[in-house]
């Protein structure tokens, strides 16, 4: 069963680009790990303080293995709010059936 971790979080708009760049080592490390199908931490195009998080893992075990060795962000930025959730996926198919 694959796992998706997705959602949004909010930082001060003046810190958003620094927050995203500070998480670049995590994105790079995750994408090179076995079991990582995709990972992105990106700016929202509409809300200035919003950061979008998306992770797709082959399994919970792959996610756990990465979290055990994941680098820390290279910056410290306060997160004002977050709405990020883990989803366990039992079926995947085309977006328009």
Automatic annotation (TrEMBL):
InterPro entries: ABM_dom, Dimeric_a/b-barrel. SUPFAM superfamilies: Dimeric alpha+beta barrel. GO terms for molecular function: monooxygenase activity. Keywords: Monooxygenase, Oxidoreductase. It holds the Pfam family ABM. Coiled coil: none annotated. The keyword Aminoacyl-tRNA synthetase does not apply. Residues 3-97 form the ABM domain. Signal peptide: none annotated. This is Antibiotic biosynthesis monooxygenase.
